[in-house]
Every structure is written in C-alpha cells, then in structure tokens.
Predict the 3D structure of the following.
Amino acid sequence: MRIVRLIGITWWLQLKMRSRSAFDGLLSLLWPLFFATTIFLMFRQGNAAGPAMLSAAVGAAVMGIWSATSTTAAFALQMERRQGTLELLVAAPTSFALLIVPLTLSMATIGAYSMIATLLWGRFVFGIHITVDDPAMFVVSVAVTVIAIGMLGFLIAIASVRYRTAWALGSALEMPVWLICGLVVAVSSLPAWVRPISWMLAPTWGMAAIRDSAQGGGNPLAGLAMCLGLAAVYGLIGWFLARWMVHSARVNATLALS
Amino acid sequence: MKGISFAVERGELFGLLGPNGAGKTTTIKMLITLLLPTSGRAQVLGYDVVKQAREVRRKVGYVFGGDRGLYERLSGLDNLRYFAELYGVAPREQRSRIGELLEMVGLQGRENERVEGYSRGMRQRLHIARGLLHRPEVLFLDEPSIGIDPVGARELRTTVKALVDQGTTVLLTTHYMFEADELCDRIAVIAGGNIVATGTPEDLKKRVSNGTVTEIEVFGLPDGVVPAVQRENGVRSAVVEERGQAQVLIVHAEPGADVTQAVLVQLEGSRVGRLMTREPTLEDAYIELVSAA
Amino acid sequence: MTSLRILFIGGLTSYRALFNWLTPWVLIPTFILSPIVHILLFAYIGRTAGVGDDRYFLIGNAVLNAAIPCLFAMGNTIGGERNQGTLPLLISSPAKRVPLFLGRALPVIVNGFVVAVVALGVGAVLLGVSLPTATWPALAIAVAVCSFSCTGLGLLGAAVALRVRETAVMSNVIFGILMIFAGVNVPLLALPGWMGAVANWLPLTHGIEAARQLAAGSGFAAIRADLFTEIALGVGYAGLGLLLLAWLERESRRKSTLDTA
C-alpha cells in the first residue's frame, strides 16, 4: 500500500515539475512533431493512403513517448546531481529503485501527451483518418506501452547514477529504438540479425498491440502480455542494478559534483 | 581521510571544525551512508553505517548550507510532501507535521510559492524543515549558516538549540567560530584528515592559548617592531592586521606574563590608538591548532 | 595581435571549457553513433514509404548532422556561460566582441565538418552506397561550407541566448526546422510552395543540393552557385548574430536582464 502511494505521489510531483520546464514539457511535445512531420511528408510523397498512413501516424505518435523518456531519463539524474538532491534521494530510507520508477514513468506520461498531439497533428494538418478499431484495447495498449517505456527508461536512469556521462548514452538510444522496435519501419524489413534485439525490447510488442487494436485483426493481447512481461523483467534487472550502482557510487563518491 | 576517531554522546551538540578540504563533509557523508569508508567502522545510534544503512537512514536527518538540495520548480509545500513520502512519514500525520514545521521555520503563508522564487534564507529554512520531517534522532548540519544574513543565522541558532533541548543529537560543521562557541557542547578540530584536538570550547581555548591576547592599534607601524616584539620575554606570537588607516598588533602572551609594557616600549615614537587585553577566543584557538597541524 | 589571440586561443579554450563532451563516453554516442542511426532510420523509412533512394537519405542526413555541434555548441557559448555564472565576467571584459565570438565559432565549424564526414563515410559503407573517390574532395568542400553556414545561424542563436534562457530548446527547434525544410528527407518540390520559399533562405538547403549533385557526378562548376549562396547565407546569419549580440548586450545592461542566477 505504502509503495503504491509512494509511486503515485512521486509520479504526480514529478509530472508537475516536468510540465513546468520548457525543456521537458514544450520540447517533448515539439520534438516528435518534427519527426512526425517529416515522416508524414515522406509517406505523402510516396502516395501512401489509408491503412499505411494510419500506421505511420500511430508509429510516429509512439516515437514521442520514447523520445520523452530516453533523452530525459539519462539527463534527469544528472540534474538531480547538479541541484544537490541526488544525495538526498540516496540518503532516504526508501529503496532508490522505487524512487526512480515514478521518475521515468512521469517522463513516459509526458510522452503520452505528445502522442495525442502527434495524432491530432496528423489528423488536422495532414488529414490522416484516425480510425481506431477497438478503442478500449487501444487505450489499454497505450497505457501498457507507456509503463513499459517508463521501465526501459528506468534502466537508463539507473546507469546514470554511477556514470556521470551516461546522459549521452541515453540520448544516443533515442533513434535506435525508433528504428529497431518497428515504430515506423516493419521489424521484418530490418536485417535478420537485428530482429532478436527487437523482440527483447518491450516497445516492439507494445507497438504491435497498439497497431493491432487500431487496425483490427492480429492479437493485441499477446503483444500486451509480452510487453508487460518484459517490463517486469526490466524492473527486476533495474532493481538489482540500482543496488549495485548506488553501492559503487558510494564507494567512488559520484553522487555529488563536488 | 586518514584515521579519525570520535564519539558523540546522545543529546549532545557536537561541532566538527576544520579548514576547507579537511574532511568534515566526507566524514558526515560516511555517517549518513552516502559514502562507504574504505576501512574502519562507524556506528550511528548503535547501527553500523555500512551493514545497517537502512536503519541509519531512518533515524538521521541531513541539512547542508547553500541553495542546492531543493526542487526549484516545485513549491515549498510540494518539496516537503515529496520528502515526507520518501521518509515514510505516515499519511495521516503528514499534514500536521508539515504545518508544524512550516510554522517553526517561519514559512507558513509562503509554502505554495515555487522554490525558485525563495531567498537564500527561505531556502535554508525549508531545508531544515525537510531534514526534520521524520523527527530524526540525529541531525547532521553541514555548514547550515553559509550565506544567510545575521538575523537568519541567529534564528537558525535558536532553532538548533531548541532541537537539542528536545533531545536531538546534532553534529554541526561550521566556519563561524562564534557559532560553534555559542552552540557546541564539544568540538573536534580536523586538519589534514586527522583530529588535532577534541574538547569543550573552553577546553580548546585553555589548551591552546593559556594566556591573554593584547591588541594594540597603531597608526604607522615602523619596520622591525614585530620581530622585536616577538623576541620579548613572555610573547608567544605577534601578528599585524591592517584595519583601515591603522594597523593592529595582536600579541599572544605566555600564561601569567604581562607583556603590555614591554610592547609599548617598542612602540615608542609611534601614534598608538586603542589598547585592549582580552581572553583568547575560539577563533584564536582554532587558528593555532590548524596552523600547527 | 590581441584580437588574433582572442580569436584562436580564446576560442579554443572556451570550447574546451564549455563542453564536457571531449570524452569518448560522450563523443562516440553523440557524434558517431547518433548521426549514423539517423541516416539508417530515414533510409529505412524511405524504403518503407517507397520514396528516394539510400544515397538521397545518406547525403541529406549526414550533412544535417553537422548542424548538431554547429547549433548546440554555438548556442551554448552564451547559455553555457550563463549556467556557469561566468557570463557577466565575459561581458564586462574589454575583449573585442567580433574576434571573441568568431573565435568561438572556429572549433565548432571543424567539429561539425568532422561529424558529417564520418557519418557520410560510415553510412555509405553500411548502406552499400558507392561514392566515387574522385567526388570526395568536392563533397568535403560542400560539407565544410554547410558547417560554416550552420555555425552562422548558431551565432545568431547565441545572441538570442542573451535574452532567452532555454538555449537548448531553441537549438532543438532550429534543428527540427532544418530537418523538415532544408530538403534533407523531402525534396523541395514535394513541399508546399511556402515551405520551399522558406527553405531557400535557410542554411543547408543549397549545400545539401550541391552535395547530392556532386555525388551524382556533376562537376564543380555546376554547383558553384549553390555553394556561393550557402556561404552568403552563413555570412549573413553570422553578421546578424554579431549585430544582435551588440544590441542585446547594450539592452541587457540598460534593463539589467543579464542576470546570472
């Protein structure tokens, strides 16, 4: 109970903080729109229509969730370090991993705003018909994908506790995940050796479930199960990683800048 | 840190003094479980800081000076709510505890403003409230009065005294000697990673400068006077401080020796202003201890 | 002499002081891996959408990535000073402004150039695009010109940073605009007319076009006009930047907006 409350309140306060920052708030709305616009223009140039356009719109929308998470997850702890709060988080009696999960969940939530913005942009600027076959399933799939992406961001954030330069790695993961998880390019069109990596990444399955529920057909539940399962695995890995990273940071004195 | 060893009694206000880089903050960070010692052992309230970190964290509070350590974009109230959550303050108790602390540090009415608009003093007070949320049994104050105005600093001292009166154990570091002198029951002086002295402020003053200090204001101190004074019998040290138009000759005397006349003889021919003889302060003691280390 | 020292030594020193990215842990992901993935991403999207060919996306996106150091590093010459609290010291120094800021631009141009050339080379290998060796010198010149013009725009951004706090947001937005408008992934002809008109006034548009023609086998003569336009735009933006810097500096002293907190 206490854990649910902790995650809930921390998530809410983090969301409040992030929506007040031009960098996290405004940019995480705009940045994916630049890519979405380019993608829409490319598909339009290629005379795509109907389902192909819808698929591109939904994919571009999910890109925003990941980009709001990947770039900020690695940066957030650097910010905490700079403002001297990272030490306070570690010094608290609550497990560090539990504090970071709501942090990255709040980023993914901000990303969900950008998902809506992208869909509206596609609808009203590019006239893409956003028809959703199974709205309830669609919403559930998006929610699960947000959680899974938050958990993937959690892994990145944890790494940056120990390594002060990890922020660069986080930003560098933005586009690879877009590409590998089949957000706009089908996984089957990627080289064969890349595909196993796609399958280990939860967004791949979340994206599949979102597409299935939007277009009808397929089995969104199977995708959701894989997505949640992988998210749980990330959580578990992150939990152990966090203990190890915090220990190492305490030995090497990397929690503070000074 | 080389090898330091000290014990703080429950309910005591213990001061840790030393120059920048001496290892005060490192010591505190080891005690509050932010750093792991490479060797040696430390216990807080009987809990080992390495093996029982969680227990230690529940019982200690940490407040540091300067304006970092707060979430700028959140209101003061939200900052407190967040940390109340992290420290597991019972939900039912949170509201009253936060209200109580806001009143104690004089921030009631301002708690809904964002911290980015707070002054240094307000931030520091919010920091203290944050550190006290979970009613810590031991409070670590790392240079808490740095950069706050004299009125704020005095209020801070009053708050700290009140906490000690209520039974909180406090470990304080500061660069302000009068603050340490006024507050601390006992003091340890760290220099170069070692403890060079421990004792009550009175002990330290006696131990180091068992004797008096004479300050003489001189307008136009001739060359060669200072070495001549230093050679006088009963003089332990003599230094000059510039104060505006005048120079002040500060002479530390051996215990029992009265050197005033001898020094005045050396100053014959110069214009002498005020003359003052005083007991050594903690600052005198500190400077001697640290320069000897 | 002093101005020359400020131009070269001052520029290089401030570059090293403001950027903590001169470590392989930042350098490799930011300046090598990211640009390459950027190229691959759009090449694959192009294949999916059935437009362009790999070479089109290779060149457009490789050159676009020169803009990252050019915009961010240049924008940060003011924003970074502000964050470190050294901005008032810089502004109150007697150093001449033109060499001071142009000096900061030089290392940035080199940085952008190297990023784009590496991306172009590695991207070509990964995608199996052949770029004849004979075209490389001319391509390098086109890339260098693009780095120069983007840095000019970056200098304008640096000037705005005297007033605007969120420099990184601004640089991101400019980057996004370049990506959409400058013919990186979508040919100008496929854009609505007004967008094409805007594109002609942006850096990169002409340079990328020149680079594509070179890779397709055109001689240097065919692209000379494009490169001159690109250079002229760079000079124009840099000049605007220096003017704006001078003006905002005076304004900020008058209105005390040059705060450091």
